């Protein structure tokens, strides 16, 4: 337990990356969108909230590519490093997700900041009740972090060849998914499932994927060298 | 007594390249051991494997009696300072603060003193440090950690002679007060020779020499003079190196010389020069694991 806490402190020793960074970038992008909406006028359903999720993807990569080598040099096992890092990010995602939820509530209450700006409301996925928004955004942040970690873990474990294979594999899975979900295959279980997908069910799917990424990541990171 | 390091048949293979080949040795108790060898000899791979940053293809690694692989209790007793250490985007003070949380024997006063000695800027990002400054930071961490097993892998890359001497002095001073197991890899052999109690020479992944440093001094001698006289003197001895210029010859012979040998050399008008540790390591025949002290006259 104490090693996990030390790992978390290691990531937070400079608060820029994990605490300040996401909000600094989000604040900047939000202000830009606010200005654009003010100038152009009218309803503006932007998707710029994605920037905070992409930020988590980026720090997920860095947590393995830059921070892991020094973590191991400090006498931490890969398992402890990985577990401590994921627990930290899960906690941060819960807090950040709650903050995003509160901002969404404020956005709704002010009519899109008085400009009909939909920055913290994203159609379908982040447009439901506050508790679902909190859950979905938290799960989404964790998922993107884990996804970034996976790229770096695969790169460290199997080098460039593994990374290319990893990307090709994902493309193949997506292609198969699209084929199975087309009307021709509408009676397949995948097509039926997607047809009835609600934001809550989507969140459940994302959480399941995140769980698989954690289990797989923990298994692979144990064989990573630095 | 449980050895600090115990390696048995340690082998590391990368596809068709053998980085470590059946490495077996033990290091017991507090000592400073030199791991010497040329670039690419396997020094870094060996150190990384001891610290569980790399995996063995075969054989075993024991640190304080246990496998270090994924064992936090063992790993926290090890500090590995690497020449090519990757740091996150942190400032020097952040790196040191983090290190202080992980090493149970961390000495903040020693770290502060070393920082001043090496003139390291606390607020500068590690990624913006010069190569020498980054090496100095590694040295600060390695020494201040006071880890029971400290591994220095070419720790002074980019440091000037004065800074390297500072490292040697601080290491010896701190070791005297807090004895522990230190393994230093280097190719600046003569410079570090006075530090070392024991020498391991690695060549192409194999340990080709394992001996006490004191015993190695005088373990080989350069014999110079006219070719016939030199050849007469070295007859029956193991010769590691032969150089001839005109009628003069200079040969490196293994094995210690006694008073009778010296008297004989004087009669033959030969010059005898002790081979330095650096020269000794260069001349150790590759592929033969043996102690040159065992070489003797036929």
Describe the structure.
The complex is a heterodimer of chains A (226) and B (298). In chain A, α2 (16-40) packs antiparallel against α3, α3 packs across α7 (130-181) and α5 (78-109) packs antiparallel against α9. Chain A contains nine helices and no strands. Chain A has one domain. The two termini of chain A are 24 Å apart. Chain A has helices spanning 2-12, 16-40, 50-65, 67-73, 78-109, 112-116, 130-181, 189-195, 199-221. Helix content of chain A is 79%, strand content 0%. The mean pLDDT of chain A is 93. By secondary structure, chain A is mainly alpha-helical. The radius of gyration of chain B is 22 Å and the shape is globular. Chain B is an alpha/beta fold and 298 residues long. In chain B, α6 (161-177) links the parallel β6 and β7 (181-186). In chain B, the strands form three sheets. Chain B has a six-stranded mixed β-sheet with strand order 5-6-7-3-8-9, sandwiched between helices. The A-B interface holds A 3, 6, 9-10, 13-14, 17, 62, 66-67, 69-70, 72-80, 222-223, 225-226 and B 48, 51-55, 70-72, 75-82, 85-91, 94-95, 97-99, 101-103, 147.
Q: Could you give the topology of this structure?
A:
The complex is a heterodimer of chains A (about 230) and B (about 300).
Chain A lengths: L1 H11 L3 H25 L9 H16 L1 H7 L4 H32 L2 H5 L13 H52 L7 H7 L3 H23 L5
Chain B lengths: L4 E10 L2 E11 L3 E6 L6 H8 L7 E6 L8 H4 L2 E5 L9 H11 L5 H11 L12 H15 L3 E5 L7 H17 L3 E6 L2 H4 L5 E6 L2 E7 H4 L3 E7 H8 L4 E7 L2 E7 L4 H9 L3 E4 L2 H7 L15
Parallel strand pairs in B: 3-7, 3-8, 5-6, 6-7
Antiparallel strand pairs in B: 1-2, 1-4, 8-9, 10-12, 10-13, 11-12
Helix pairs in contact in B: 4-5
């Amino acid at each position: 337990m104490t090693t996990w806490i030390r790992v978390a402190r290691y990531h937070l020793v400079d608060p820029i990356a994990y605490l300040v960074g996401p909000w600094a970038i989000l604040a900047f992008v939000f202000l830009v969108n606010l200005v654009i909406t003010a100038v152009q006028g009218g309803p503006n359903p932007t998707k710029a909230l994605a920037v905070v999720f992409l930020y988590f993807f980026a720090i997920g990569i860095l947590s393995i590519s830059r921070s892991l080598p020094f973590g191991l040099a400090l006498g931490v096992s890969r398992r402890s490093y990985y577990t401590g890092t994921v627990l930290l990010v899960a906690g941060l995602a819960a807090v950040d997700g709650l903050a995003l939820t509160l901002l969404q509530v404020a956005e709704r209450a002010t009519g899109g900041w008085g400009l009909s700006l939909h920055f913290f409301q994203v159609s379908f996925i982040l447009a439901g009740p506050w508790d679902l928004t909190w859950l979905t955004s938290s799960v989404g942040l964790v998922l993107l972090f884990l996804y970034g970690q996976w790229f770096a873990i695969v790169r460290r474990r199997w080098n460039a060849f593994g990374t290319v294979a990893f990307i090709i594999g994902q493309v193949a899975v997506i292609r198969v998914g699209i084929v199975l979900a087309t009307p021709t295959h509408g009676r397949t279980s995948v097509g039926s499932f997607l047809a009835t997908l609600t934001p809550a069910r989507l969140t459940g799917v994302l959480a399941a994927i995140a769980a698989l990424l954690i289990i797989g990541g923990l298994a692979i990171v144990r064989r990573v060298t630095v | 007594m449980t050895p600090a390091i115990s390696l048995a048949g340690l082998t590391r293979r990368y596809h068709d390249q053998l980085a470590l080949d059946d490495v077996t040795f033990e290091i017991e108790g507090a000592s400073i051991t030199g791991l010497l060898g040329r670039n690419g000899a396997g020094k870094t791979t060996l150190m990384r494997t001891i610290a569980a940053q790399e995996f063995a293809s075969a054989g075993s690694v024991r640190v304080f009696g246990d496998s270090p692989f994924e064992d936090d209790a063992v790993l926290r007793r090890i500090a590995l300072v690497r020449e090519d250490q990757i740091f996150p985007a942190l400032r020097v003070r952040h790196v040191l603060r983090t290190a202080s949380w992980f090493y149970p024997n961390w000495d903040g006063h020693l770290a502060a003193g070393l920082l001043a000695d090496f003139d390291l800027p606390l607020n500068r990002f590690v990624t913006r440090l010069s190569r020498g400054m980054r090496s100095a930071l590694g040295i600060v961490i390695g020494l201040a950690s006071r880890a029971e097993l400290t591994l220095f892998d070419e720790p002074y890359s980019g440091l000037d002679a004065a800074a390297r001497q500072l490292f040697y002095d601080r290491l010896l001073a701190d070791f005297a007060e807090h004895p522990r197991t230190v393994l230093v890899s280097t190719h600046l052999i003569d410079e570090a020779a006075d530090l070392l109690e024991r020498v391991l020479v690695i060549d192409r992944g194999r340990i080709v020499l394992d001996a006490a440093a004191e015993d190695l001094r005088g373990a080989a001698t350069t014999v110079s003079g006219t070719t016939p006289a030199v050849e007469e003197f070295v007859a029956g001895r193991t010769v590691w190196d032969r150089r001839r210029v005109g009628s003069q010859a200079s040969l490196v012979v293994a094995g210690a010389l006694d008073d009778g040998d010296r008297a004989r050399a004087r009669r033959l008008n030969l010059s005898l020069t002790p081979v330095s540790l650096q020269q000794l390591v260069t001349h150790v025949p590759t592929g033969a694991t043996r102690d040159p002290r065992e070489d003797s006259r036929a």
